[in-house]
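Minutes, structural biology subgroup

Action item carried over from last meeting: produce the structure token record for DoxX family protein (Nocardia yunnanensis). EB confirmed the sequence was re-checked against the source entry. Recorded below for completeness.
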Amino acid sequence: MATRIGFRFATSYFGLFGLVGVIGLTPILLAGLGIDTGWASVHRMLGLARPPIQWTATHLLGLRVTSTQVGSDSGFQWTALFLVLVIALIATVIWSLLDRRRPCYPRLFAWTQVGFRFVLAIAMFYFGMAKAIPTQMPFVLNRLVEPYGNFSPEGVLWSQVSVSQPYEIALGVAELLAGVLLVIPRTATAGALLCAVDMTQVFLLNMTYDIRLKTVSSQFLLLSLFLLAPHARRLFTVLCSDRVAPARRPAPLFTSARANRIALVAQLVTGLLLLAVTGVQNWRQWQHPAPELYGIYEIDHFSSEGYARDPLLTDELRWRRVVVDRPFHVTDPVVLTIQHMDDSFEIYGGSIDPARHLIDLHHRIALGTYAETPVRVRLTYWWPGPGLLVIDADDYAGHRIHAYFKKLDPQAFPLLERGFSWVQEQPYNR
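Output recorded by EB:
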């Protein structure tokens, strides 16, 4: 009885969670096929779901819903997850009352295993490919000139992973391997086991570095454990004893052998297609070229209204450095960061016109977020010599400024110049 009730609840809960997750990932999968029109439909569905979720958050959970943000730990997502739990509990009670005499569900169990394997495999392909093709944790030039004490815990983890691309790729390959094993019926148990290991690490990092993916990673960990539950005794026998594990004969999806062979081919083809689509989507993001002026520039001379400004730490207008970087997760093609004398940052999204030597800043980006506020700032630039840059603005914060820069070599920073050494006589722990 307990097993049947547990199966009904898990099927209801993970079925709803998997459906919502697949709908959320559909625009990303479509983008891998070159179709960039999926987000509008998802946003409409989220808009329809917002009123009941917002009411539940306000009156039952004491949470504030400020957006329909999913794939994070937003109030909207936590409340949606709570409602999925409530609906699953209600569905379990109704199912148990209406179907209380059925002794087991071999065929339904087989189909739910296939569905949940693919829900988990899609997630592993998506997150794994974002690391194997390093787009999830990109290296950000700002981190080379930002004081370590200003980093958030998430910023520390992102920077630590991004500085070692082989490590990030290895993390992604482990998740991709779990997804591939999940797709193949004969190796699905090994895939669920590897996925449980991967997600345990991810969940632990999310909890200890305060990363806003706690809901997502915890659900994928629970789903991988649910897939492993039927094999718990056999795994215990293999890992913790010298006895032989008994063979398991799962119920087939169909009664016909031919239909089962077709189902196997369909699973393999679908898995290969999902892997390819996520790969294409991340490869397109990875292929973005470095923007014009990409690099770190340090101020050598700064003036406003034609008068030089001394490098005083109390000067709120004077710049210290300018960093031009790739856009990563913002809408503009270029990110320009201004570091002031007190090491504070202003981050802007914009575009560069190399033909006219213009930098147009369109958005100011809130520190530590990707929230964009529209602005209109125009800078002009030119090169007086190799490794030198001049930036002028007729109106920056109400001032006419002139700035003269020297370009810094990112590889000269200790974080990047060290490289790898087999032989080390002394520790190099700066």
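Discussion: The first helix runs from residue 2 to 32.
Next step: EB to file the record with the rest of the batch.
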